[in-house]
Structures are given as structure tokens and as C-alpha cells.
Amino acid sequence: MHLSRRNFLFGAGALLAACGTTSRADVLRTPFIPDDDGPGGPMPIDRRGVSCAATADNTEGPLYKAGAPSRATLVTDRDRGERLLLTGTVIGTACKPLANATLDIWHADARGGYDNDGWGHRGTLVTDAQGRYAVRTLVPGRYLNGKRFRPSHIHVKIRAKGREELTTQLYFEDDPYIEGDPFVVSSLIMPHRVESGVRRASFDFVV
User: If pLDDT is split at 50, 70 and 90, which confidence band does 10 have?
Assistant: First the structure.
């Protein structure tokens, strides 16, 4: 049966989450779900017009925790908040996809709080043979940074063999708190849309 975005959103990710924590050597492969409804499966990656300049780094912040569990779904049915599907690829500066690159992802919950005691909204996953990844989670809430709110953002570390580790953040287009935020880099702002009740965003990392 063909898995399309209509009949597969969070089921496979929940199955991965149930597998528990593994060592980095046993990191589970990201289940790539084609973002199309046709019978032909995943569309070929078209690099024409795509910049292969290295992705900008961004501050790590104080709340990173090493050792996050291996999973591509960072949300449970109990979590409140708008669901998010984040997809994309990891490629090198020569525009070649990087298989087995590790994404270490963490972000706030819908209220803007981080789970510092457990592993809520934290996880690691690896890219497939074409450098693709898919993460199912929720849209992070905003929190006060001094006298103003930080825009909604997702923290990411990228590790790939023979490449320098990248630490960065992703932001959402049209967030009203982007303007004036001292950490935002324009190239890290993602377009997004809502389909079938799920917000969808895409970002290609270049390392």
C-alpha cells in the first residue's frame, strides 16, 4: 500500500519512539515519507537553482543535553500543541547528499519550556541514502529572553563523517518576534504551510 501524506503522519514515528534509547552506533534510520500523493513514490531530488553554501551556524543556547534518544518522532499523544512535520536533506558543499548524517534536535514545548529532567522534544536521527530526513514533533512555544520573547525555533546539531559539526537554529517565516531578535539569521528562516491539520516545513542543511 502506498504511504502518502494523507494516510501517514505520526504512526511510524510513534513506533520508532517505542523502541527506546539506543547507542549512537545503533541510531535508527529516518523513515522517509514521500511528500506526494502519487503512486510513484519519492520524487527525485532536483538540485537546480539550490545554493550549496554552508548553512549558517547559530548559538547553541544553555539547554543542550548530549545523549538524546534515537527517534524521529519527538511528540506524544499527550503533548499539547500544533503538530509539525519537518523534512529536508543534508548535503555537502559540493551539492552531494550525505547519507548517515546525524541530526541532534531539541526544542521547547508548546508553552516555551524545555524538558531538562527528561528527553521531551529531544532526539537524534540519521539521514537515508539520499541524505533525507523527516521529523514529527510540534511547533515550539516562545519564551521570554530578558524583556522580549524569542521567536519559535528549533535547535539542531549536524554531524557527518569528515565534516565539521554544525550547531544552528531554525525559525519560522512570519513569526512576529523575528524582527529585532539578536540571534536570528535570515537564511535560517523556513517557509511553512498547514495541510490536513499539520504544519509542514522543509530545510536543507549544507555542511
Answer: very low
